[in-house]
Amino acid sequence: MGSKVVAGITTSVDGYYAGPDDGPGRGLGIGGERLHYWVFGGPWTYEGQRDAGDATGEDREFLEHWVDANGAVICGRGTYDAAGAWGGRNPWPVPLFVLTHRVEEQPAADTGFVFVADLGTAVRRAREAAGDKGVFIMGGGGVITEALAAGLLDELVVSVSPVILGRGKRLFDGFDRDVDLRKLQVWSSPLATHVRYAVRGG
């Protein structure tokens, strides 16, 4: 069967995973920092990210679970660019496969990034790299919905932060499939509720 493929993303209560005008230096868009308060244990800013804190309590337990469970990570080029390529160094302790139409721009091997041209190839190579661990798709939203529509996901994890953004990028915009989910586990804190679902048929 191969490694389990899990997608995870944080949204607002109204379903946005980024505010408007996201991009380098403002990876979650205007106002989007609030989505990831749980990651840093409280308020943070783009300018002060290097000095931000760490997740605590249930949020820390949730985050450590996914870091430990997965042997490879996949993201889209939009996420990679919006994060400023994380300063040129993979933030995960495992290979990070980046979906892009510009595979010829492949970064140096010691950065920990691997550019691939399509989702199917990314999942196959990530499974090979992950060994007996899982594969985690971290976004963006378009990559996650593409994987869901293609039947590639075993599980979906949605972290909902207690904020209404009102505009930006919404997770399931344009998604027209009917998919049944089964709730497996919930982590909850004042900063987010993390719900892990099995994808029926996944």
UniProtKB/TrEMBL annotation:
PANTHER family: BIFUNCTIONAL DEAMINASE-REDUCTASE DOMAIN PROTEIN, DIHYDROFOLATE REDUCTASE FAMILY PROTEIN (AFU_ORTHOLOGUE AFUA_8G06820). Residues 4-188 form the Bacterial bifunctional deaminase-reductase C-terminal domain. It holds the Pfam family RibD_C. It comes from the Bacteria. GO terms for molecular function: 5-amino-6-(5-phosphoribosylamino)uracil reductase activity. This is Dihydrofolate reductase family protein. InterPro entries: DHFR-like_dom_sf, RibDG_C, Riboflavin_Biosynth_HTPR. One of its GO terms (biological process) is riboflavin biosynthetic process.
